[in-house]
Design goal:
heterodimer, A: mainly alpha, Arp2/3 complex 21 kDa subunit ARPC3, 7 helices, 75% helix, B: alpha+beta, Thrombin, subunit H, 6-stranded antiparallel beta barrel, 6-stranded antiparallel barrel, globular
């Protein structure tokens, strides 16, 4: 559990640092906290409910940290966790699965926000703009998920993936 | 078996409806914050402050001291420019602050500064940097405040803006930001303009809207077109601020 909390916290702090100091690099628009949930799965392989609860609480903390909405990210993270768990549980755990989960989670998270924001008239973005954002979310976050995968696949941490 | 399936579908349906209804109350900038929420926000801001500012700026080696000096020089220049701006608008009070948090760029467009209620910050105050208007204060905690950026495309915020053309003032409403073209749209501008002469004229806040002080630079006019009915003009503006580079900002107090 300690590992899970650390990985989510580090991702959250990194996300803030990237947002603050590296906003100029359009290709890196971080959603590192969401990506970290994919790697948290390795500790919750046999504890489905625990995984959903952990993701929802992470979303709630994310809301406290970054936004003014109490539960928006708790909902979004919960829905993403359902999909991540399904993908990771039904496929072999390798780099391709991690990448596929990352892309699905990023896409799903953005779609949820887009629908909710448009529905409740919080923001007004066209579909063209949504596509424009999405391409910036993909690249940087896939690099991040690759880096974490490489670190966890290292001999020292290999047991986490092969648990 | 079929009954159980039906029950499940009903339960899922009600959960989705419940989440939607719940979301309605929370996807809103005007949600009132309570003591618990304020305290947690301040706590997360403190963590962010330690990690993003102290951690990066204090933990340096000899090799990067020169780079840091350059960074400080840039910071001093920015502050000097802000001071120039301060003397120009003498009827307003300015509170300088550092940005300590920034949420995901396209969706939320909220930054958090290290000044709050105890420093005299209130809701709906305008926020600028050395280049012009950035946004407005939407939430004030004890030690921190949240600022919604001008580019957030929020549906409930219209900014009244004006510009000077041939010694006359023309007014309109800033309504939308186009991420792809990096331009703001000024709508409902009534008048006849020459397309070539109007370019590069400064657009500033008029002070007529509820929250923004007057005379704050928004950007320069890029182009002008007529609306669908040919009655008013739609003007596109290039923002004067680079929203990707916000380190130090100033809250304007006093005018509104």
């Amino acid at each position: 559990m300690f590992f899970n909390i650390i990985i989510v916290l580090i991702s959250m702090i990194l996300e803030n640092i990237f947002n603050l100091y590296l906003s100029n690099i359009e290709l890196i628009t971080p959603l590192f906290t969401l990506i970290s949930l994919i790697f948290v799965y390795f500790y919750f392989k046999n504890n489905e409910k625990g995984y959903y609860l952990f993701c929802t609480i992470s979303g709630f903390i994310y809301d406290m940290f970054f936004t003014n909405f109490y539960i928006l990210n708790a909902i979004a993270f919960f829905i993403c966790s359902l999909v991540i768990y399904y993908i990771m549980n039904n496929h072999r755990l390798n780099y391709i699965t991690v990448l596929f989960s990352s892309i699905t989670a990023i896409f799903l998270y953005n779609v949820i926000l887009y629908i909710l924001f448009i529905f409740f008239k919080y923001n007004s973005y066209s579909l063209l703009e949504f596509g424009y954002f999405l391409k910036y979310f993909i690249v940087g976050n896939l690099i991040y998920s690759t880096i974490i995968y490489i670190i966890l696949n290292n001999k020292r941490f290999n047991h986490i993936i092969k648990q | 078996m079929k009954k159980r399936k039906k029950h499940r579908v009903f339960i899922y349906f009600f959960i989705i409806v419940f989440i939607f209804i719940l979301s309605y109350f929370f996807i809103n900038d005007n949600v009132k914050s309570n003591f618990l929420f304020n305290s947690i926000k301040d706590l997360t801001a403190s963590i962010s402050n330690i990690t993003s500012i102290s951690f990066i700026k204090k933990d340096y080696s000899n090799d990067i001291i020169n780079e840091l000096n350059n960074d400080y020089k840039k910071e001093i220049n920015d502050l000097k420019q802000i001071l120039d701006l301060n003397t120009l608008n003498s009827n307003k009070v300015f509170i300088n602050s550092t940005v300590i948090k920034r949420s995901t760029k396209y969706w939320y467009n909220i930054i958090t500064i290290d000044k709050g209620e105890k420093d005299g910050i209130r809701n709906n105050l305008s926020v600028i940097n050395n280049n012009g208007l950035i946004g407005k204060v939407i939430k004030v905690n004890k030690k921190t405040s949240d600022i919604k950026l001008l580019i957030s495309n929020s549906n409930n915020d219209y900014i009244s803006a004006m510009f000077n053309y041939n010694n006359d003032y023309y007014y309109g409403l800033i309504d939308n930001y186009d991420y792809i073209k990096n331009e703001l749209t000024l709508k409902n501008v009534i008048g006849d303009f020459d397309r070539e002469n109007i370019k590069n004229i400064n657009v500033v806040t008029s002070g007529l809207s509820d929250s923004f002080a007057s005379g704050l630079l928004i950007g320069k006019i890029k182009d002008i077109t007529k609306d669908t009915f040919g009655l008013s003009n739609i003007i596109t503006i290039t923002p004067s601020v680079n929203f990707n580079n916000l380190d130090i900002v100033t809250v304007v107090v006093g005018d509104k």
